[in-house]
Design brief:
The complex is a heterodimer of chains A (357) and B (855). Chain A contains one helix and 23 strands. With 357 residues, chain A is an all-beta fold. Chain A has a single domain, classed as AttH-like fold (Beta Barrel), CATH 2.40.370. In chain A, strands 1, 2, 3, 4, 5, 6, 7, 8, 9, 10, 11, 12 and 13 form a 13-stranded antiparallel beta sheet that branches. In chain A, strands 14, 15, 16, 17, 18, 19, 20, 21, 22 and 23 form a ten-stranded antiparallel beta sheet that branches. Chain B has 855 residues and is an alpha+beta fold. Chain B has four domains: 211 residues, no CATH class; 164 residues, no CATH class; 255 residues, no CATH class; 176 residues, no CATH class. Chain B has 27 helices and 22 strands. Classes of the chains: A mainly beta (357), B alpha+beta (855). The interface between A and B is medium-sized, with 29 and 31 residues.
């Protein structure tokens, strides 16, 4: 999903560079472009930004629930680079990982950032293969994704086995993000990934199993100027179905744009337009850390062909807020949620202060 | 007198006697105290300045280095291949690596240089966060953590507060390094860098591209995984490094900055201690005279029942008083001097070791107390012999006798002096200890002591030729007889003179020899008609081959031989060597002055010449095969074909042929050239034509100079670095002369009774004054001769032991005849003059009264 990282990376790579720097011509996101696999699992380095976003629920051997999130971002800075230096910032890679453990009561997380180069950081073209130092996310020849990341006090070593075909979002992978036709991304998901691996905390390794969701997006455009934040949810439904819904909010909290999809256990998917997705708040949680108020319990309503369908989302625990101000990033809430008949991840941004673009 | 009150009264009596003595002869006390003060002040000042400079230097080093635990640094300014970066980054023990381009760059301001660091902010954030810039716009509400806007902008540069002075955020700054020039926009400050350091940080890719270091890195800053054994990882990393990179830790950096100036510093410290030693001799001479004059007084006290111990204590107390007064004044003076020196000369006292930084004075109570104690000890030791003599006085003899208690016919003993001189000579042949010629200084001190101890005997020997001569006038006759008859008094008067004169002469001879040798050397190393160089060409860049060809084709140029000078770090804790690529044709083209034999390099080795300091520092010999960390590949076999004299680079230099340099480093650019003019060509016209021919990117950074100008500049630099030595010399002269004056006037005043007697015998006042003037002149002459002789011997220790051991270069002795003559003359004149003045006062009193005065 279009995430806070977009804003952060925009800031990071200086998209407000002096006018004399020739902006590279980023390719436009156009409808009607057929996605091809496995090539589209790999990077699209010409586009401005791109991400590989894995979220999911894990269950440890001793039957404890954990939420986790692993994200790799690729960003192409606008610099006019005919700089032949191997250090020239042609691509910048960023990765972020967090685990949600109710026993800890808050997020444990870690990150890596580097300019691509020297084999230390790269996003391969052709298939998913991302490296930033000791962090890695790649797709093997057998179609399995594997990741290895290490945060402050935790290590994740997980393998994700697809159980269903790719779910193209929007119009065959062309996903509108705002009122203008240019505000769009290429977007597909891989829900219902079977997870197996180990989670290591405080030097102790625990075997885990669970279900995850991979979101893939790449784009060259920014959010609508009126947008201050967005909400996103992806649920792996117990019956094998998958729900995705998002909205982009303006300063008054109204949806500027919204969208989503629902794939049934039979593999048939329905796409929703702005008028067919609605988020409502059930319970707010106030962060003592930042003072921000997040609607951590929400109801998502979609207008499916057979009538309105509703899911009430409840968090694994309340404090899944991430305050990355110390490293120059924003404050947002991103956590494991459960609902009747499904489990997944909810992302709430722009509640502490507007996401600046 | 009740017994209970006796000690108190004795104390009172002692106080009276001390104060009375001081009141009667203030000059003597003041000179002695001044000598101590000067010694203490100089010692403390040199120490403080160095401590301040070193702390400044280490601050500067850590400012540039950030907080990296370990660093990999290139041995040459050209850097190592950047492939080392991912290699080290993949090691399991290494948590993070920050690659760094580091170079010295000039700016649009003439004469300004900045240390430019090209960083990858994303990496530096983990390893050296203090080196990350902050845009000034981000101050205020949003200033939370490192905002990285403009971090990748290849035109953005962040400046340290010192470099920002006189500039504003948003302005342009021009950086030029290695012959490249590029304009940058000042994007913000480096809040984590200290005030003094002049630093510019930009993106690593921009630095590589725009300042010409593509593919090369000068530094890798490492952060290790928590809990790893640094020493063990260091060993492991060291094994993985190519030939042209080496591992550096904070400690080895500190050692390097210390060794940078250690010899110079220790030399100044030692000279200051020598000043203190002179002070000790002056105290000795003043106290001896004072004791001699008061011998009847002490005898009377003894007769009255005062114990020897009390007399000893009294004289010692006088010494302590003088030492304390001198020491306290000296400490105040030392702080003032250090402050002044830091402001005027900079932290290296003009030695040129620490660049242009002006450090803050470090106030150190510890060293101040130490130098006070040294001053005190000197005064006490100087008073010891006179005090013992006062206590030993036989009351019966002393009561009657005002002159020498020694029989004039007895020859003064010479063996203590011979022993001291022998020990001094032996010490002169000792090796340096920890790179510092401690034994050499010990030799100087021993020689000085031996020389002074020889004075009574020497005065006799020098005067014996005159003793039996008949003079037409009575004055010289009386003067000679008197000096002959009272050798101890003469010697006492002379020891301060001899000590200060000999030190001064030793230093003067050393400096003049050094300067003379440097002058000769400059003439030898600058044989061409014109010289050309690029300023701040330290890293990469310079004239490429095409530009070299174009420059050489300038009309009026017969031959232009291009050179390249860079640095070569031999080891992590030593200052780098200079690495010089010489033009083809080897030594024939502007041959450097060779020392000793040369050898032919066998096939398969690369011939090099090493400078004298380099040979000394690394133990290289002609005909030796050595390894040098040049080129990333396997260590090459280098062959030392000769050793050349070099006064310009104290830390050593290695010269190799141009094509070997290019083959080893891939660097085809050259930064300097020597130019031979076509017959009849005009120097200035050709220089201007060459300057006009310089590629535009280098315009304004190239200087073309005649050897005369370079020679003058070099000698000016030489004089600047010896400014402190000259200052010490001047002070030694003043102290020495003041000592002479005080001693002679004291002796003269003490002899009022003698003058009365002479007057009774019919000698006129005029004749007495003439006698005193002659005595003074003779004393000055003897002191001068002895001092100069001793000084010449000591200068040989400085030239052949202290200098080679500290600075690793040799020189030939040059005698500053003019200065020596002046010193001798000044001594004779000032001694005669003071005697004259004092004598006038002494004989102005009524003759009858002066005889009666005593009894």
């Amino acid at each position: 999903m279009r995430r806070w990282m977009l804003a952060f990376l925009a800031l990071l790579v200086g998209w407000t560079v002096p006018a004399q720097a020739q902006a590279p011509r980023y390719p436009l996101v156009l409808p009607g472009v057929a996605l091809r696999f496995p090539a589209d699992h790999g990077a699209h380095p010409d586009f401005r930004t791109e991400w590989w976003y894995v979220t999911g629920w894990l269950r440890t051997e001793d039957a404890k629930d954990l939420g986790f999130q692993v994200t790799f971002f690729r960003s192409r800075p606008p610099a006019a680079s005919d700089n032949p230096s191997a250090f020239a910032p042609r691509q910048v890679l960023f990765a972020h990982a967090a685990i949600s453990d109710p026993m800890v009561g808050k997020l444990m997380h870690g990150q890596r950032i580097a300019r691509a180069g020297f084999g230390l950081a790269q996003a391969a073209v052709g298939d998913a293969d991302l490296v930033i130092d000791d962090w890695r996310l790649r797709r093997g020849a057998d179609g399995r994704f594997t990741t290895k990341v290490a945060g402050e006090g935790f290590d994740l070593d997980l393998a994700f086995t697809p159980t269903q075909p790719v779910l193209l979002q929007g119009e065959s992978g062309f996903s509108r993000k705002g009122p203008l036709a240019t505000q769009a991304s290429y977007y597909y998901s891989l829900p219902q990934l079977k997870v197996a691996g180990t989670v290591q905390r405080g030097g102790k390794a625990v075997k885990v199993a669970g279900t995850a969701w991979l979101d893939r997006e790449w784009s060259s455009t920014l959010l609508d100027p009126a947008a201050v934040g967005w909400d996103w949810v992806g649920l792996n439904l117990d019956d094998g179905g998958a729900l995705m819904a998002f909205q982009v909010r303006d300063a008054s909290g109204k949806a500027l744009w919204a969208g989503g999809s629902l794939r049934g256990p039979d593999g048939r998917a329905v796409r929703f337009g702005p008028s067919q997705v609605r988020f409502t708040s059930q319970r707010n949680w106030r962060s003592r850390r930042t003072g921000a108020v997040y609607p951590v319990e929400r109801t998502v309503t979609v207008q499916a062909p057979g009538g309105a369908r509703r899911w009430s989302l409840k968090p694994l625990f309340d404090d899944q807020e991430l305050d990355s101000r110390a490293s120059g990033g924003p404050v947002y809430w991103e956590g494991a949620v459960r609902s009747e008949g499904g489990r997944g991840y909810l992302e709430l941004t722009g509640y502490a202060s507007p996401m600046k673009l | 007198m009740s017994n209970a009150r006796a000690p108190e009264q004795r104390g009172l009596a002692a106080r009276w006697m001390i104060l009375g003595e001081w009141r009667a002869h203030p000059m003597r006390v003041i000179t002695a105290a001044a000598a101590i003060a000067v010694g203490v002040a100089l010692g403390l000042a040199v120490h403080l300045v160095n401590a301040s400079a070193l702390s400044e230097f280490s601050k500067a080093v850590s400012a540039v280095n950030g907080e990296a635990e370990l660093q990999v640094r290139s041995t040459t300014a050209r850097g190592f291949a950047e492939g080392l970066y991912p290699e080290l980054a993949r090691k399991a023990e290494v948590a993070a690596v920050s690659p760094v381009v580091e170079l010295e760059a000039g700016t649009e301001r003439p004469g300004e240089t900045l240390t430019v660091l090209g960083l990858d902010v994303l990496r530096a954030a983990y390893v050296t966060p203090s080196l990350i810039g902050r845009p000034l716009a981000a101050e205020g509400d949003d200033a939370r953590g490192p905002t990285m806007e403009a971090a990748f902008d290849e035109r953005a540069v962040f400046l340290s507060p010192a470099a920002l002075q006189g500039r504003a955020i948003g302005q342009e700054i021009e950086l030029s390094a290695g012959g490249r020039r590029a304009a940058f926009r000042i994007a913000g400050v480096l809040p984590g860098v200290g005030d003094e350091r002049r630093l510019a940080v930009l993106d690593i890719a921009a630095a590589q591209w725009r300042l010409g270091t593509l593919g090369r890195l000068q530094r890798l800053d490492l952060k290790l995984v928590k809990g790893t054994d640094v020493a063990q990882v260091a060993d492991q990393l060291r094994a993985a490094l190519p030939n042209d990179a080496q591992l550096v830790s904070q400690e080895s950096e500190a050692r390097r900055s210390d060794s940078l100036s250690r010899a110079y510093r220790v030399n100044l410290d030692m000279l200051a201690l020598m000043a203190l030693l002179t002070g000790g001799f002056l105290v000795y001479s003043a106290q001896s005279l004072s004791v001699a004059r008061r011998r009847p007084q002490f005898a009377l006290l003894r007769v009255l029942g005062v114990r020897r111990r009390v007399l000893l204590a009294q004289v010692m107390a006088e010494g302590v008083g003088v030492g304390l007064a001198g020491g306290i004044v000296g400490i105040g003076l030392g702080f003032a001097l250090a402050d002044g020196a830091l402001t005027l000369l900079g932290g290296d006292l003009g030695g040129g070791y620490f660049g242009a930084s002006k450090p803050q004075l470090v106030l150190a109570p510890g060293p101040a107390l130490l130098f006070l104690a040294l001053g005190l000890a000197t005064a006490v030791v100087g008073s010891l012999a006179p005090a013992r003599e006062a206590a030993r006085a036989q009351p019966a003899v002393a009561l009657k006798n005002a002159g020498d208690a020694v029989d004039p016919r007895a020859t003064p003993a010479i063996w203590p002096s011979v022993l001291l001189l022998a020990a001094g000579t032996a010490a002169a042949f000792g090796p340096a200890i920890g790179g510092v010629p401690l034994l050499g200084y010990a030799a100087m001190a021993l020689l000085l002591a031996g020389g002074v101890a020889a004075m009574p005997r020497l005065a006799r020997v020098l005067l014996s030729g005159l003793k039996d001569r008949w003079f037409a006038s009575i004055a010289p006759d009386l003067a000679i007889k008197r000096l002959w008859g009272a050798p101890t008094q003469a010697a006492v008067a002379l020891c301060g003179v001899v000590a200060s004169t000999s030190l001064m002469v030793a230093m003067a001879v050393m400096v003049s020899s050094f300067r003379g040798s440097v002058e000769d050397w400059l003439a030898q190393v600058l044989p061409a008609d014109l010289y050309l160089r690029i300023e701040a060409a330290g890293t990469g860049g310079g004239f490429d081959p095409d530009e070299q060809a174009r420059l050489a084709a300038t009309p009026g140029v017969a031959r232009m031989a291009f050179m390249r000078t860079t640095t070569l770090r031999m080891s992590a804790d030593a200052p780098p060597l200079a690495l010089i690529a010489r033009p083809e044709g080897g030594l024939d083209a502007g041959a450097p002055p060779m020392i000793g034999r040369t050898a032919e390099a066998p096939a398969g080795t690369i011939p090099i010449y090493v400078s004298e300091p380099a040979a000394w520092l690394y133990g290289w010999k002609v005909g030796q095969r050595i390894d040098l960390p040049i080129g990333g590949a396997q260590p090459q076999g280098f062959f030392v074909t000769g050793i050349w004299r070099d006064y310009a680079r104290q830390h050593g230099a290695v010269t190799l042929e141009s094509h070997d340099y290019t083959a080893l480093t891939g660097d085809r650019s050259r930064s300097e050239a020597s130019i031979t003019l076509a017959p009849g060509a005009d120097h200035r016209a050709v220089a201007e034509a060459i300057e006009a021919n310089v590629p535009s990117r280098l315009a304004g950074r190239v200087t073309v100079a005649e050897p005369r100008v370079i020679r003058d500049m070099a000698l000016r630099l030489f004089d600047r670095s010896f400014a402190v030595t000259y200052g010490l010399e001047a002070i030694a002269i003043v102290v020495g002369l003041a000592g002479v004056a005080a001693t002679i006037s004291a002796q003269t005043l003490a002899r009022t009774k003698e003058f009365g007697m002479l007057r009774h015998l019919g000698v006129t006042r005029r004749q007495i004054v003439a006698m005193l003037a002659t005595e003074g002149a003779l004393l000055g002459a003897v002191g001068g001769l002895a001092g100069i002789g001793l000084g010449l011997i000591m200068s040989q220790v400085l030239i052949h032991v202290v200098n080679p051991q500290s600075f690793h270069w040799t020189m030939e002795t040059r005698l500053p005849w003019g200065l020596l003559a002046c010193v001798g003359l000044a001594l004779v004149l000032s001694a005669a003059g003071t005697a004259l003045l004092a004598g006038r006062r002494a004989v102005s009193a009524d003759a009858v009264r002066s005889v009666r005065e005593d009894w």
